[in-house]
UniProtKB/TrEMBL annotation:
It is an enzyme of class 2 (transferase). The keyword Repeat applies. It comes from the Bacteria. It comes from Thermotoga petrophila (strain ATCC BAA-488 / DSM 13995 / JCM 10881 / RKU-1). The keyword Electron transport does not apply. Keywords: Aminotransferase, Repeat, Transferase. Pfam families: SIS. One of its GO terms (biological process) is carbohydrate derivative metabolic process. GO terms for molecular function: carbohydrate derivative binding; glutamine-fructose-6-phosphate transaminase (isomerizing) activity. This is Glutamine--fructose-6-phosphate transaminase (Isomerizing). Its EC number is 2.6.1.16. Residues 31-172, 191-321 form the SIS domain.
């Protein structure tokens, strides 16, 4: 079996085990109390590629539930000091799956010199980020494929849960969503399997706020795995220029948001009239899931499946995306 496929499908059952063994125990860890103690009125979230999309999604959720200002910044902009008005101290989360991404390590150095406390987010305990950040948070996830899949979902779930715990919010919703994950996976697989992917060569992912980060990640999965032209936009922004590219071979995934039913219905009708195939992810959608922002950790799964299935339909190995490595070292 493809490494990438195995890691995508692992989520169907591993999410429950991961949630029970790791996420529910986060509050008892020293790292939890250290993050809580070091929270400032503005927190930075820094990463590259999928890790930047993860940082952006988490940044929005921290701001939503903790009522603090956050900034998601590409690591290269911090590493080479191109960020305007960077404060002299604070808290920063740095994301690198392997923990050895050059820009992230350089960003960690820059921020620590400016008296930031840095939280190193990685799945590799022996990585440089785990050793060089002030507060390493190493996730017990094994992922070997070049394309990031299940670790994205699991880290996102963990940090959203952590934010709610710090805020004193109920976390029961996470338990419900994790319980739904096997069914969500099966529905996603069946829906995408029914699409004639040979007839679609343009993928578009639309979402707002936390779901915009999900959409960016979804587009990236399809680019990496299947080499298919893929884009992501804030939902209503798609009308403002990008829809000029819509045609019969366009497949649109729209992440549904509470209170936006009428706007989403109108946009779907408009895009379908231009020849696009439109699928909605969310309450009452083609792939049903709660519209709660907490569902973000599940919402990249359909695109992971899509990227894999499109790659197979094109005779491309999703395990060997051209020009890509698991770790970017400059």
């Amino acid at each position: 079996m493809s490494k990438t496929l195995k890691e995508i499908t692992d989520q169907k059952n591993e999410l429950k085990e991961f949630f029970g063994n790791f996420v529910l125990n986060l509050e008892k860890t020293e790292i939890f109390s250290e993050i809580q103690k070091n929270l400032t009125d503005e927190v930075l979230f820094v990463g590259c590629g999928s890790s930047y999309n993860l940082a952006l999604t988490i940044s929005n959720y921290f701001e939503r539930v903790l009522k603090i200002r956050t900034k998601a910044i590409p690591a290269g902009e911090v590493a080479f000091q191109k960020v305007p008005d960077l404060k002299e101290e604070g808290l920063a989360f740095l994301f690198s799956r392997t923990g050895n991404t050059t820009e992230v390590l350089l960003a960690n150095d820059v921020l620590r010199k400016r008296n930031y406390r840095t939280v190193g987010i990685t799945i590799e305990e022996e990585s440089r980020l785990a050793k060089e950040s002030d507060l390493p948070l190493v996730f017990p996830v094994r992922e070997e494929a070049i394309v990031m899949t299940k670790s994205f979902s699991m880290i996102l779930l963990s940090l959203m849960f952590l934010a709610d715990k710090i805020a004193g919010n109920s976390t029961e919703r996470f338990s419900e969503l994790v319980g739904y994950s096997p069914e969500f996976f099966d529905i996603s697989w069946k829906v995408i399997e029914k699409i004639d992917l040979k007839e679609h060569d343009h993928f578009v992912f639309l979402g707002m706020s936390e779901f915009f980060g999900v959409s960016l990640e979804s587009a990236l999965k399809c680019i990496e795995m299947s080499l298919t032209f893929s884009e992501a936009y804030s939902t209503l922004e798609y009308r403002h220029g990008p829809k000029a590219l819509v045609k019969k071979g366009t497949l649109v995934f729209m992440q549904k948001v509470s209170g936006m039913d009428e706007q989403e219905k109108r946009l779907r009708k408009e895009l379908e009239s231009l020849g696009a195939t439109v699928l909605e992810v969310g309450e009452g959608g083609d792939i049903p899931v709660s519209n709660d922002w907490r569902s973000a950790f599940l919402r990249t799964v359909p695109a992971q499946i899509l990227g894999y299935q499109k790659a197979i339909s094109r005779g491309i190995s999703p395990d060997k995306p051209p020009h890509l490595e698991k770790t970017v070292v400059l």
